[in-house]
Every structure is written in C-alpha cells, then in structure tokens.
Amino acid sequence: MKTTVSIEVVVLLAGLLFALGIVGVIIRKNIIFMLLSVEIMLNASGLAFVAAGSRWGQPDGQVMFVFILAMAAAEVSIGLALILQIYHQHKSLDIDNLREMNG
Amino acid sequence: MDKYLWLIPALPLGGFLILALAGKQLTRASVAIVGAGSICLSALVTIIVGGAFLAGMPANAVYTQTLWTWFEVGEFSAKITLTLDVLSLVFVFVITFIGALIHIYSTAFMEADRDYARFFASMNLFVFSMLVLVLADNLLLMYLGWEGVGLCSYLLIGFWYEQPANGNAARKAFTVTRIGDAAMAIGLFMVFQQAGTLVISDIGANATTIWQPDSTVVTITALLLLAGGLGKSAQLPLQTWLPDAMAGPSPVSALIHAATMVTAGVYLVARMHAIFALSETARLVIAVIGAATLLLAGLTALTQYDIKRVLAYSTISQIGYMFLALGVGAWTAAIFHFMVHAFFKALLFLAAGAIIESLHHEHNMFKMGGLKDKMPVVFWTFLAGALSLAAVPLISAGFYSKDQILWYSWTANGGSPVLWMVALSGALITAAYTTRMMILTFWGESHTPVGHLPGRRMTMPLVVLAVFSVFAGFIELPHNFGHFTLFSDLLHPVLPETVMRDNIPSEWLFQLLAALATLSGIFLGYHYYYQQPARIENLRRNGLLASLHRFWFSGWGFDALYDRVLVKPFIFISKVNKSDVTDRLYTGIAAATGEMYKLLSRTQSGSLRWYIMGLVVGAILILGIQIML
C-alpha cells in the first residue's frame, strides 16, 4: 500500500528538527550534547533533501543524503577526537569554561 | 701625443679608486705613493701632452677626444668628450702642477692623521672632478665635474668631522654653493632650450644666430650661469661660505679654496664668453660684483686675526679682480691673474699651514710674531708670495697680472673710471693687509714657542711655488715696456681680444699710480704695525672706528643678515609645518581605525554560543529580508 505524506508536513518536520538542533547547540553547556545537536541539524537537512527528491521524482535528493551521511561520519570522528583532546587539556567539557580565544 | 689626454683625469681617478677601496689595507707609505704619485704622473702627462699640443697646434687650436657616449635620449646625446685648447690647458696645468706640489706637501703635513687614506682619496677625487670640469666639451659633463668638486670640497672641509664646527662649515659651504648651482642648472636648461645643444663649441660658434644681442633672454641666461659662478667663486652675495671653509686642513685650503675650485666661476664665464659677449648688462653686473667684492673682502681681511681667514678674504678679493677683468672684457687678463694667483695663494696657504703646524695649531696672528729667524725657509717663501699678493712693482708676478686688470678696468670697452678707482683702492688695501700679516707673523716679539720645523717634503713645494710666484709674471709684460705677450697670444684663439676705448690715456701714468697705491699700502701697514703700534690702540679707542672694525671683522654682517633673513624664518616655518594639516588627516584615519578595531574586538568574546547566536540571527535576518523583498 502506498501511503503519501504531503511534502509540507515533511519539510515542517525537518524545520522542527533543525530548530531543535540549533536550540540544543545554543543552550547546552556540554560539548558532547552540542555535537549531538549538530548531528540532529544535519539529519534534518538530510530529511529535507530526501523529501524534496521524492516530491520531484529525482534521485539527487537521496544522493545528497548519502553525501551528508558520509560527511557526518567524518565530522563526528574529528569532533570526538577534538573533544577528547579538550578534555585532556582542560579536564572539563563545559563550553562556558572554554572561552580563552577572546579578542 | 695628444691621444694620451684621457690619462690626465684617469690617473687621479685610479688613485681615488685604489685608496677608497683598499686604503685601509695599505701602509702609510704606499698610501702616500699612490695618492701623491697619481697626481705627479698626471702633471707629467700634462707637460708632455701640453708640450706636444703647443708644438703642433691644430688649425682650429682645439683637440677633442671622445671616449664614449654617456647616454642618448631622442636626438640628444651626451658624450664623454674631452677637449683641450689653450684655456683648458692653462687650467689643467695649474690643477695638476700645483695639485702635485700640494699632494707632496700633504704627505708630510697629514703624516700624523688617523685618516691618511681618506684624505688622499678625497683629494684625488677632487683633482679628477676638477679636471673633468675644465676638460669637458659639453656643459653637462662640465656640470658633473662642477658638482664633483662641490662634493669633495664638502668632504674635505668637514675632514676633521669630530668637531661640530667643522661639520657646520662643510654644510654651510655645500648649501650656499648649492644656491648658485641650482641657478646654473636652470641656466643650462635655458641654453639647451634655445640652442638645442650643450656642446660648448657649437654654442660658441652659433651664439650670434641663436640670440639677439642684448635681448632679455640672453641676459637672463648669462646671469643664471653667472650665479653658479658666483656661488663657486665666493663672490657677492654668496661669499659667506669661504671664510668658514678654512676649517679644513691647510693643503685643502691651498688646493681647493685658493688655487683651483674657487676659480671655477672664472673658468665658466671665460668658457661661455660667447654668451656673455652678447649681453652688456650681464658684463656690467660681473664687473660691478667683482669690484664690490674685491673692496669688501679686502677691508674685511684688514681686520681679521686668524691668518687663514685673512688669506680666505684675500682670495675672495683677488677673485673679485678676476671677475672685474671678465666684466670689462679683459678675458686674457683674468686668466693670467688666475694663474699667477694660483701660484702665490697656494704658496701662502701652504706656508701658513706650516706655521700653524709648527706653532701647535695657533691661528691667531697676534700670538705669532718673530718667526723671521726661526723659520727662515717659510719666511722667505712667504715673503715671495706676499710680494706677489701685494703686487710689488717689477719684482713680483702679481704686479704684472694685477696691473693689467687695473689698466683694462679703465681703458677696456666695458671699463670706467669708477671701476678703476675701486680696483686701485683695492690694490692699496691688499698691500696694507699683506704687510700687516707679514709684520704680525714674522717680525716683533715671539709669543708662541716654535715646535718642530717643517721637513723637506713641506719646504720643497714652498720653494718651487715661490719661484713661480716671482717669475711667472714675465711671460706677459705690459705694452709700454717689454711688450711681451706670450700668454695672451696663446689664449687668443680661444678668447677674444680685449676691445679698447678711444682716446686712452698713457699707460705709464696708470702703472705709476698702481705702484704708488701698492707702496703706500705697504707703508701704511709698516707705519701702523711696525713703527707706531700704539697708534692702532689709539684708533681703536675711537668709538666710531671700533664699531667699524667690528662691522668689517664680521664680514660686513652678511652672516648675521642671512641668519636673520633666511635661516631663522626657514627654521620657524619648518617648525610650524612639522604638524601640518595634511598630516592631521592621515593621523586621523589611523586613530579612527584603531578605535573601530577596539570596538569590534569586544565581540570576539571567545564564547561559542554567542558566535552561533550571531550566525543564527544573521541567517534569519538575511532570510527575512529575502522573503520580505
């Protein structure tokens, strides 16, 4: 059975997820959670691509999602490595304590 | 033999290069050999080349040698070309011959100096530049030599640079002559603009077709060229640098500031006589400036205490005679006086240097005295020079050269009784200050003990120059007795004959008056400084005479005048201008940038959340604008 979901609903969901991600990045103090929120934002945009691809019957949307997936994997590995280093040096993951690079 | 002409300037240049590049490594003996040897060889080459030139005189009496092309711009090409005619031969002879004697003297005089090699390097460079100046066939090359001698003069006046006064004297000489040089450069531009060439012989040959006689243009051109000559030759109103230039070592004063460089102005006017012949105004200006200078400098010399300053003012005065002769149209007389003056004034400066050295750097004549028996060689040679300077009749070279100028200052085309009167009173003053200098230095009681006496390397040049100071006059005897005109005959292919006025009085009368002026000048000096020294004291008590003395002593207040009119306002303006409006604009821009940087650097808080907030707000704003529009 083929259920159709209207494109508006999907894009709304993607926007919601993206806004959630942004809010998470802004209000969270722990860097690991901020990284998680960034992942949510990435997947929100991936969702929007897939929805748009199916709406116009083009494969490009899914191709883009595969790209985003690969990029997210790379980003997470580098991000986690950085977080490890930060924890080594500062013994803290609180973003408010890590503000040495000020003007 | 003419083809070896290039060797004459090349030898001093070689000496300069060796001493400048390797002077520190050479021993003192080899520095002396290179420094003096290059000039001696150059003098030798001059005698050989000059002799060959005079023996086989070319038809046009000029020998030119093009070495290479300096540069070419469009149709204009400046060549390094040397030209030898009798006029430049006289100058080359004086420069190399007297230069060689002075260099030999310097090897002993500068013996104890730390910078032996630097001294000879500068001296050799000077001789090279001076030779370029007189041998140049175009005005551009001549200007190169002209600036070169100015540079060397600056370097050598400030030779003992550790004393600030010497540095100031050097800068003053450089700046004051620069005023004249700037005018001369403009003059050269005008010549090029009108004649289309800077080759001297071409200008001379075509002068009458290029310029209208007595037109404004030719007068302005001539006066601009003259201004350059006035600066170099220390004539009114640019004479203030020469007395201060005595801060240099005595051989420098003898070579540069008496014999050669300061007569470059005379050479310039004689060389460009074709232009000056076209402008009666310019010639009158030359004659008047010469007459005024000789009188003014003579009276100043009468009041000086420092023996070298007396000689400096005397040099200014004697060059005034040369300019007077050029102005009245007695071209050969000016060159003759230049040659004779070079001999006796170089001699006087060298002898004065020997005296100063022996008296432990005592310059004040009133502290000398009684040197007649203690330094006999210096005394006799100094006497020969002084006789020539005072123009003692018959037995001195100076008489023959100066008598000619006096005679022409009345009878030549541009002459007048007033100029003659000035020149005659100048002769009296010259004799008076010369006698004063002789008596104060050599007679009377000794005030300062004599140190070591000058050695043979210092006395030999003195003796040679003394012989020339006495006998050099015999190559040109007056028309009324002897009528022997070897010198002017030689120069006539280059310089025009002196045009005489009609109904001229007898020459005998003039000679008699000139001799009388000299003798009464000597008597005045003898009377006031030897017979009745107390009378000078009486005169000094007179308030008017005392203030006159002060006025003359200061060189007629020219230094104070220039200080007040030019130097002080210039310093004031530069002080005001130090924080000028244009500067404010740029410092304002710099300050505003700094402020804005401070403002923006506040936003760089280091807090990641704020950056993200900024990003989000920015994105929303841009999207919002996009949607709204």
From TrEMBL, chain A:
A biological process term (GO) from this entry: ATP synthesis coupled electron transport
Signal peptide feature range: none
InterPro entries, alphabetized: NADH_UbQ_OxRdtase_chain4L/K, NUOK/Mnh_C1-like
Keyword Membrane belongs to the record: yes
Gene Ontology terms, MF aspect: NADH dehydrogenase (quinone) (non-electrogenic) activity; quinone binding
Membrane topology qualifier: Multi-pass membrane protein
Known EC number: 7.1.1.-
Annotated compartments: Cell membrane; Membrane
Domain of life: Bacteria
Record field: transmembrane: 6-27, 32-52, 64-84
One Pfam family recorded for the sequence: Oxidored_q2
Catalytic activity: a quinone + NADH + 5 H(+)(in) = a quinol + NAD(+) + 4 H(+)(out)
GO annotations of cellular component type: NADH dehydrogenase complex; plasma membrane
Keyword line: Cell membrane, Membrane, NAD, Quinone, Translocase, Transmembrane, Transmembrane helix, Transport
Physiological role: NDH-1 shuttles electrons from NADH, via FMN and iron-sulfur (Fe-S) centers, to quinones in the respiratory chain. The immediate electron acceptor for the enzyme in this species is believed to be ubiquinone. Couples the redox reaction to proton translocation (for every two electrons transferred, four hydrogen ions are translocated across the cytoplasmic membrane), and thus conserves the redox energy in a proton gradient.
Record's subunit section: NDH-1 is composed of 14 different subunits. Subunits NuoA, H, J, K, L, M, N constitute the membrane sector of the complex.
Family classification: Belongs to the complex I subunit 4L family.
Protein name, as recorded: NADH-quinone oxidoreductase subunit K
Organism of this sequence: Dyadobacter jiangsuensis
Taxonomic path: Bacteria, Pseudomonadati, Bacteroidota, Cytophagia, Cytophagales
Gene: nuoK
TrEMBL record, chain B:
Keywords (A to Z) from UniProt: Membrane, Transmembrane, Transmembrane helix
Domain NADH-Ubiquinone oxidoreductase (complex I) chain 5 N-terminal intervals: 70-120
UniProt domain NADH:quinone oxidoreductase/Mrp antiporter transmembrane: residue ranges: 136-429
Localization: Endomembrane system; Membrane
Molecular functions per Gene Ontology: NADH dehydrogenase (ubiquinone) activity; NADH dehydrogenase activity
One of the protein's GO biological processes: electron transport coupled proton transport
Membrane-topology annotation of the record: Multi-pass membrane protein
Pfam families according to UniProt: Proton_antipo_M, Proton_antipo_N
Location (main, coarse): membrane
Top-level taxon in the UniProt lineage: Bacteria
One CC-aspect GO term: endomembrane system
Annotated TM spans: 6-23, 30-56, 76-104, 116-135, 141-161, 182-204, 210-231, 252-270, 282-303, 310-328, 334-356, 377-399, 419-439, 460-481, 508-530, 608-628
PANTHER family found in the cross-reference section: NADH-UBIQUINONE OXIDOREDUCTASE CHAIN 5 (PTHR42829)
Name recorded for this polypeptide: NADH dehydrogenase subunit L
Source species of the chain: Dyadobacter jiangsuensis
